[in-house]
Design brief:
alpha/beta, Rossmann fold, five-stranded mixed beta sheet, globular, disordered N terminus
């Protein structure tokens, strides 16, 4: 399905926001301009307001990270799933009664489609654009609307670890201590599961998804889905890393399924009913040892699949709870 075919195939501007300058009623003294902080990101260094009040998220999963800080965006970009206000079940408590405007409802195509006019109409004082490929032109246009922060300069598009997303948002909001706490809590859960399941350590694994008939997507080690598995102790083969390069996934044919004959194979199939059965019916797949031995798991529950796909600080605990028992069963065979 289109939602999980995002591929990272894909200057510097600093914009200060000066607010609250006016004459004092008593002595006509000017109030100082609102303070800003500098945030370094992939496309430059941006001066952001110290206390932003109207934040828009442009990245497909950016709202999750913002909600983890108890900051509710006024506008969010829809990815997939058809949930109210583009907020999945694991994040609905954090959203509360808020009703952010949703851009591109049901329109995800795998390509950035930024709703500039709608964003501008919301009069944001900060725009976050992390989990999305932002061109220099798009960044310039967004920065004309409000100070804009993209992803980390240290990772390719769609390849920034969730921990770095949290830290970057923490730096942007001036909440680095909160960021450290959020990262520590989820990392502690991952570490506990890894220690509880030594059978995961060093086992080869891959995350695969069905594409068009006769084709499949294999997730890069940089992708959030793969990162969850390696955090638990699994290993992505070097061949997959080499073929992926800086992309978050690459496509293979039915004839190339042999590269997925690993210790454990994770099929992320929950985006479309019947996909698991279609994969299981492919003769080339049936011939793999990982299939014959029952060491493949099918993540066909839509919410669990979504939690794995989003790979955010809010979705990961949900994914961990649901997937670890299945992974343990497969890795023990």
């Amino acid at each position: 399905m289109a939602f999980n075919s995002v591929r990272a195939v894909a200057g510097i501007a600093a914009f200060g926001l000066v607010l609250g300058v006016g004459a004092c009623a008593s002595d006509a003294e000017e109030k100082p301009a609102t303070e800003t902080r500098s945030v370094v990101h992939k496309l430059g260094t941006t001066e952001v307001p110290v206390d932003p009040e109207r934040i828009v998220t442009v990245g497909y999963s950016d709202q999750d990270t913002l909600l983890a800080f108890a900051e509710v965006p006024v506008g969010v970009t829809d990815w997939y799933g058809d949930y109210p206000y583009a907020t999945w079940p694991w994040a609905q408590d954090a959203l509360g009664d808020a009703q952010p405007e949703v851009f591109n409802r049901g329109q995800f195509t795998g390509q950035a489609n930024i709703a500039y006019e709608q964003i501008a109409a919301l009069q944001p004082d900060l725009i976050m654009a992390q989990y999305i490929d932002v061109s220099s032109d798009a960044y310039s246009r967004l920065s004309e609307i409000a100070p804009t922060v993209t992803g980390s300069p240290d990772y390719p598009d769609f390849g920034m670890p969730w921990q770095e997303s949290v830290r970057l948002v923490g730096d942007t909001l001036g909440q680095s201590d909160k960021a450290a706490e959020l990262v520590s809590d989820v990392d502690a859960e991952l570490t506990a599961q890894r220690q509880a399941h030594p059978e995961f350590e060093g086992k080869t694994v891959a995350v695969a998804e069905a594409g068009e008939p006769g084709s499949f997507w294999v997730r890069s080690p940089n992708d959030q889905r793969s990162r969850l598995l390696t955090s638990l102790g699994f290993v992505i083969p070097q061949q997959i890393a080499d073929l992926a390069g800086d992309q978050d996934a690459f496509q293979i044919s039915t004839e190339q399924l042999g590269m997925l004959d690993l210790d454990v194979l994770v099929w992320n199939t929950g985006s479309s009913v019947g996909t698991s059965d279609q994969v299981k019916a492919v003769p080339t797949y049936q011939a793999l040892n990982v299939a014959r031995d029952g060491r493949a798991i099918f993540v066909d529950d839509p919410i669990v699949s979504g939690a794995l796909t989003w790979g955010t600080v809010l979705s990961l605990p949900f994914a961990i709870d649901a997937l670890v028992p299945q992974l343990a069963e497969a890795a023990s065979k």
